[in-house]
Every structure is written in C-alpha cells, then in structure tokens.
Amino acid sequence: MEQTFIMIKPDGVQRGLIGDIISRFEKKGYYLKGMKFMNVDKSFAQQHYADLSAQPFFAKLVDYIISGPVVAMVWEGKDVVLTGRRIIGATRPWEAAPGTIRGDHAVEVSRNVIHGSDSVENGKKEIALWFPGGLAEWKSNLHPWIYEN
Ligand code: UDP
Ligand code: MG
C-alpha cells in the first residue's frame, strides 16, 4: 500500500493541533507507520525543501520550519498521497475548502500548519530523509472493516 510523509509544522504544534490532525488521518482509515517529535536544523530543512530553493520565499520557509519542534509522520493506505493532500487542503489557506486542515485552521500561506508529500515518488524520498532507520511494522486488526482487500 501507498505511503506519504506528513509533517505538522511548528505553528501546528504551538497551536495545539497535533491531536486534531492525527485524528483526521486515523479516523479516515490510514495507518500510522512512523512518528517523531523533533527539532530540525537549517541544513536539514533546506534539504527537505530543496526543490523550492530558487523560490523567493525559501529562506523564510526554512526559518519557519526550524522555529520550533515538528511532528514527522508516515501514514499508509490506499491513495494516501493524493487523499492526504485533499485532507490537508490547498497550499494557500484562503483557497483551502472548509473541512480541510488548512481550510479550518490556517490563514496565511507562510503559516499553513502542515506538510504532505505531493507524489508517491517524493513521498518515498521524504520518508527516506526523515526516517532513515525504517518504519514500524504492524497491521491493524480492523483492516477488513476498512478495506475490501
Ligand atoms: N510557501 C510560502 N509562500 C508561498 C508558497 C509556499 O511561504 O508563496 C510555503 C508554504 O508553507 C508551503 C511551503 O512553502 O506549504 C511549500 O510550498 P509548496 O508549493 O510545496 O506547498 P505545499 O506542498 O506545502 O502545499
Ligand atoms: Mg509541497
């Protein structure tokens, strides 16, 4: 099954949104395969966002990500990359639909609470970067109640 990398950004942690965010993925029927509460340093944040290094907001973005602890997670499930992005909502919170995480909890693009991988391939890269030691192995006993196969 597909996996995605999800990170609750420092504003999400400070604002007490960890439980709400985890709950949305859990209740949907996705499986938590890795989770770390951690601070990241500048070079690590630059590596995570390397694709955006030419953007004018890059330096501010890196400062934002290193401004406090983050929750790094791996979630697994059918179509979890795309559906995870839909649960998160549009990058710019004013374009994010109500009911999405950013639609419900964010105002500014530079304070948009959460990161989610944008493709299966980038998800694999991000998981390797953030979880070099591998992931937890488990299968939910509820699996047949959520998935047909
Ligand atoms: N960002 C920003 N200003 C912008 C666009 C993006 O500060 O004009 C930040 C924002 O926090 C966003 C992150 O850069 O989540 C990564 O941008 P991306 O386009 O990858 O959006 P995402 O995949 O997070 O929706
Ligand atoms: Mg992105």
Automatic annotation (TrEMBL):
The active site is at H115 (pros-phosphohistidine intermediate). The keyword S-adenosyl-L-methionine does not apply. PROSITE patterns: NDPK, NDPK_LIKE. Its EC number is 2.7.4.6. Keywords: ATP-binding, Kinase, Nucleotide-binding, Transferase. It catalyses: a ribonucleoside 5'-diphosphate + ATP = a ribonucleoside 5'-triphosphate + ADP; a 2'-deoxyribonucleoside 5'-diphosphate + ATP = a 2'-deoxyribonucleoside 5'-triphosphate + ADP. Its cofactor is Mg(2+). GO terms for molecular function: ATP binding; nucleoside diphosphate kinase activity. Residues 1-137 form the Nucleoside diphosphate kinase-like domain. ATP binds at K9, F57, R85, T91, R102, N112. One of its GO terms (biological process) is GTP biosynthetic process. It comes from the Eukaryota. The keyword Kinase applies. It is an enzyme of class 2 (transferase). Homohexamer. Belongs to the NDK family. Major role in the synthesis of nucleoside triphosphates other than ATP. The ATP gamma phosphate is transferred to the NDP beta phosphate via a ping-pong mechanism, using a phosphorylated active-site intermediate. This NDK is microtubule-associated. This is Nucleoside diphosphate kinase.
